[in-house]
Amino acid sequence: MQPRNMSMSGAVDLSAVKAAAEAKQKAEQARAQRATGQAGGQQAGAPVQLVIDVDEAGFEQEVLQRSTEVPVVIDFWADWCQPCKQLSPILERLAEEYAGKFVLAKIDVDSNQMLFQQFGVQGIPAVFAVIAGQALPLFQGAAPEPQVRQVLDQLIQAAEQRFGIVGRPVDPQEAEAARQAAAQAPPAPPANPTLAAAHAALDGGDLGGAIQAYRNVLADEPANVEAKLGLAQAELLQRVQGADAERVRKDAAERPGDVAAQLAVADLDLVGGHVEDAFGRLVATVQRTAGEDRDTARVRLLELFEVVGPDDPRVIAARGALARVLF
């Protein structure tokens, strides 16, 4: 592994990641607050954690918002990954040694497939950085500590020079105490065991089981926001699973009148962070079709709205565009 020049030209588009995280966070806000005993993130004056476990629901607050104050290094890992077990301890040790110059966010790819795909991770371990809401890849694979240290030094320097972000000094012992306290906080009891089972299935990669469980919840509670979002995410992941992106895009280009081909590309665009492209393609498909084909495209567009979140400006704009072509 060679140290990476900290240019933002290779930055990852986090717009879809941010939107999906915001929507999921809103749906789970009450449950998360009960679990942590906090009303809005970390309490003022509380010790900053140097190493944090992050999931899709907490990505907006724990990574994007935090990256405006300190560089956030993301470690994509999995329990079965042997190279991860070599790299992760190095990153954790350096997070403590650097004492607040960066924060390490650990993301289990098995439990957070949406983030895994939206970052375009090709293999693990994979290490990214987020500075001022912008993400860039650092390196992939296990690496010796001196080279990891060199990359981190470049990252910290780039964060200060380009964005004026320097973090703040943190006592490693206080940070570890905060981490242990957070890990020991009792989880809030699920209000709906079927919904909890659906979440567990989604986190475990059982997309078929998650879809059925979310549908069961919605059969009893049609307005359940959390279940709607979970179902939309699970169905999207199931549709793109194993897809040959090059073939999907070629098919859509060669058959512009094929609704199924256009829907497949829209799914890939959304997962890849190209939200406007996905919405624009489906609005155009609705506009030039009729009958069952039009309804199919319209329903898919509404499903993707659920993934991104109803309050997102791009969803609001696309809803307006959809209304204009329908009426």
TrEMBL record:
Listed InterPro entries: Thioredoxin-like_sf (IPR036249), Thioredoxin_domain (IPR013766), TPR-like_helical_dom_sf (IPR011990)
Kindly give the Pfam families that the UniProt entry links to this protein: Thioredoxin, TPR_20
Query: Where are the membrane-spanning stretches?
Result: none
Report the residue ranges that make up the Thioredoxin domain in this protein. Answer: 21-157
Top-level taxon of origin: Bacteria
Q: Which PANTHER family match?
A: THIOREDOXIN, MITOCHONDRIAL
This protein's name: Tetratricopeptide repeat protein
Q: Which organism is it from?
A: Streptomyces litchfieldiae
